[in-house]
TrEMBL record:
The name this protein goes by in its record: VOC family protein
CDD domains, A to Z: VOC
SUPFAM superfamilies with a match to the protein in the record: Glyoxalase/Bleomycin resistance protein/Dihydroxybiphenyl dioxygenase (SSF54593)
Annotated transmembrane regions: none
Record InterPro entries: Glyas_Bleomycin-R_OHBP_Dase, Glyoxalase_6, VOC_core
VOC domain sequence ranges: 3-119
PROSITE patterns linked: VOC
Database matches in Gene3D superfamilies: 2,3-Dihydroxybiphenyl 1,2-Dioxygenase, domain 1
Species of the source: Actinomycetospora endophytica
Length: 125
C-alpha cells in the first residue's frame, strides 16, 4: 500500500539546516536513516516529520511545492516570523502576495521558501 512519507528539503549545509529546522519546529534528529548526506528530524513523540538532503541544485525562486507552517492568530504569526528570522530565516522580498494575504513568505538559511500562515485569516483573498 502506498503511503505519504514526509517532506524532504534539499540543502547545501546539512548541519546549518538541521539546526535551523530543529529550532524552528521543535524537532530533533534521529539516527534512523541518517547518513553524511541525509538527516531525519522527528517530532517530540518520535514521529518522522521532516528530512534534509544535501543537494547541489539552487532553490527554486518560485517553487510549486513548499512548506506551510500554521499559526492561529495574527499576533502569533508576527511573533513566529520574528523568531524564525532570528534563527536565520530571511525575507526573500516576495512580490506576488494577494490583496489580503494570510501568509508571510520566508526563506530558510539555504534559500528554500516556506510560508507562515495565519489560520484566522485563511484562505487569502
Amino acid at each position: 500500500m502506498l503511503r505519504l512519507g514526509f517532506p524532504v528539503i534539499g540543502v547545501t549545509d546539512l548541519d546549518r539546516a538541521t539546526a535551523f529546522w530543529s529550532a524552528a519546529l521543535q524537532l530533533s534528529t534521529t539516527e534512523e536513516w541518517a547518513s553524511p548526506t541525509w538527516r531525519t528530524l522527528v517530532a517530540p513523540d518520535g514521529a518522522r516529520a521532516l528530512a534534509l538532503m544535501v543537494s547541489g541544485s539552487a532553490p527554486d525562486p518560485r517553487p510549486r511545492q513548499h512548506l506551510d507552517l500554521f499559526v492561529d492568530t495574527t499576533p502569533e504569526q508576527d511573533a513566529e516570523v520574528r523568531r524564525l528570522i532570528g534563527l536565520g530565516a530571511t525575507d526573500p522580498g516576495w512580490e506576488i502576495y494577494p490583496a489580503e494575504p494570510d501568509f508571510v513568505v520566508l526563506a530558510d538559511p539555504d534559500g528554500n521558501l516556506f510560508c507562515v500562515v495565519d489560520l484566522s485569516r485563511a484562505p487569502s483573498s
